[in-house]
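Run: sequence + heme C -> complex structure.
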Amino acid sequence: MTLAPETLKEQVNDLGPLLRRAVLSLVAILATIGFGLGVVRYIQASDPYIHTVLSLEGDVSQGEAIFQMNCAVCHGFAATGEVGPTLVRVSDHRTKVSLIKQVISGQTPPMPQFQPDPQAMADLLDYLESL
Ligand code: HEC
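>> structure
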């Protein structure tokens, strides 16, 4: 089948925008994958609550008291584990942000969702990191 010269020209002209769209889509996909993790980290760190907690100085003994009242029933009085896992050296495999999220998210039942005020969370965080 031969194409009329005009149709051919139209098709060649169409190729430009099409190609541009394809390249743009590819760039968008790569950017999403490439920067996905970074964006997630950025959003986590820019969450106002987490940001406030991280900006505060924690008090380990305050944090321990908060832990005894709210967490020891499951994690044990020395945080060595009961219903919940041991939290000894938990900060070896958890970042500050992920520890905060663990406490406030309620995403791993039976562990409940806690809503400590930022100072209490900062204290708790320091205690968890001291284990
Ligand atoms: C009702 C029982 C319960 C209470 C109360 C509880 N937890 Fe948990 N916690 C769990 C369980 C169960 C897990 C394991 C969840 C999973 O990963 O499936 C867990 C997991 C965790 C982890 C992650 C451990 C790891 O190795 O990554 C942290 C940190 C933690 N809890 C801290 C706390 C703190 C701090 C409190 C108090 C504010 C608390 N928990 C209160 C049951 C509890």
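>> summary
The chain is about 65% helix and 0% strand. The mean pLDDT is 86.
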